[in-house]
Amino acid sequence: MNMFLHELKAYRKSTIIWSISLAAIVIVFLSMFPAFSSNAEELKKLLENLPEVLRNALGLSLDNIGSLLGFYSTIPLLYITLCGAIQAMNLGTSIVSKEVREKTADFLLTKPVSRVQIMTAKLLAALTSLVITNAIYFIVAIIMASVTSSQAFSMKLFILISATLFFIQLMFLALGAIVSVVAPKIKSVLPVSLGTVFAFFFISMFGSAIGDNNLRYITPFKFYDSAYILKNGSYETSFIIIEIVLITLAIVASYIIYAKKDIDSV
């Protein structure tokens, strides 16, 4: 418990910054919706002039963009999930590498706790940080949606779409954790996090641009298709299963590698 609280305290500043940042993004974009919806037809015509490849890459669906849910899932969520993925990747990558980088790994391992306990405490602290961020984001997003929309909308669909942020973050947290134990001597977490997240983000844009559905299985950004959620009111079962399997494999592998890995002393 002490390790968990210590790690959670270490993530406090980061959690506050990311929570405020994501809340600010959704406030700014949803504040624009009333003006956007009142000129929806004109904006649709303007967007129709964009090349189809570019519209597909950006995920611009002209069919639903005039509604709150269509607007929210098409434009704000693109940037929100990108920022959320960076936060999760940062947390995951720093789980083990932080101790090695700050030369406190050998001190930590001299304590009467197992490596499994250390890894568990760190993962739970990172997960708690994401939960806090999402809770704040959810509250702000729901309030802004209720205030800015003059028409009724499905709260269930809004929550399903918003929850994709957390699910995408879980994937990048697990990915960051495995990177952290495989390559613990990371001098700076941010370049690794940004490089990884943007690589998957560009893969998702490229897949959308060329219409290749097979690339959806490679990037977490495409596991949850907003158009499918709006149409069916649910997630695609196959991608839920894939995410559960990938997260499980990454976390189990992280425990195994960390338990057997030699940790350099100061």
Secondary structure layout plus pairing:
Elements: H1 2-10, H2 12-38, H3 40-48, H4 52-58, H5 68-74, H6 76-101, H7 105-109, H8 115-148, H9 155-182, H10 189-210, H11 226-232, H12 237-260
Helix pairs in contact: 1-8, 2-6, 2-8, 4-10, 6-8, 6-9, 6-10, 8-9, 9-12
List keywords for this structure.
12 helices; 266 residues; mainly alpha; 0% strand
Description:
- This protein has 266 residues and is mainly α.
- It has one domain.
- Helix content is 77%, strand content 0%.
- It has helices at 2-10, 12-38, 40-48, 52-58, 68-74, 76-101, 105-109, 115-148, 155-182, 189-210, 226-232, 237-260.
- Helix 1 (2-10) crosses helix 8, helix 2 (12-38) runs antiparallel to helix 6 and helix 6 packs antiparallel against helix 10.
- The radius of gyration is 20 Å and the shape is globular.
Précis, in short:
This protein is 77% helix and 0% strand. It has one domain (2-260).
Roughly what fraction of the amino acids lie in strands? Answer: under 5%
Mean pLDDT: 83
Largest sheet descriptor: none
Fraction of residues in H or I helices? over 70%
